[in-house]
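Memo subject: From amino acid sequence to discrete backbone structure tokens
Action wanted: Derive the backbone structure tokens from the amino acid sequence.
How to read it: Take the token row as a discrete description of the fold.
Attached in line: The record itself begins immediately under this heading.
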Amino acid sequence: MAAPVKVPIAHNVLMVDDKLQGGGTVSVAAILAECKTSLIADWLTRTRRTPQLNHLHLSDEQRTGHLPKLVDDLVKRLSIPNLPGKDSDASPSPAAVEHGKLRRKQGYSSGMLIHESRILQVTIFGTLHSHLTALDFRALLPDVMIIADEVDAQLTQTMESFAHSTPKSAKPQLVIPKG
């Protein structure tokens, strides 16, 4: 069973980036767009500390190359108005599909992909927590539901492409027709 990811929670002081301070409220999409670089850096730090993920020797770019586009897809989905009572469908994510193919070539297991996705959600929620004072609370819960749905949809697309890709160890074989 996977060890839970520990998220530091600020009890006394909530950190808010200077760019996000302004007295008003900010959407979840705006915070994630503004904090994309730090979110990815935090995700990388967390994955490095995760034994299930850090045994493969990959560069930072190899580990995080997929994340900017996945975060962009998430921000785009959060920016689409959602009608009350209507479920919105996750969008197809070419980045998630390519991520699955790449991770297969890099020697990942399906469990490793799930760990990455779980860490992404924890990192996103940690980013939002550190900006609580700037958030528009009226939209927070619906946005959290969209985040969970979108990250799960991206994981589904990643897993499907991962399952249908050629593994790192598979080598093409010459097939000689009979007859």
Observations:
- Residues 5-21 have pLDDT under 50 and may be disordered.
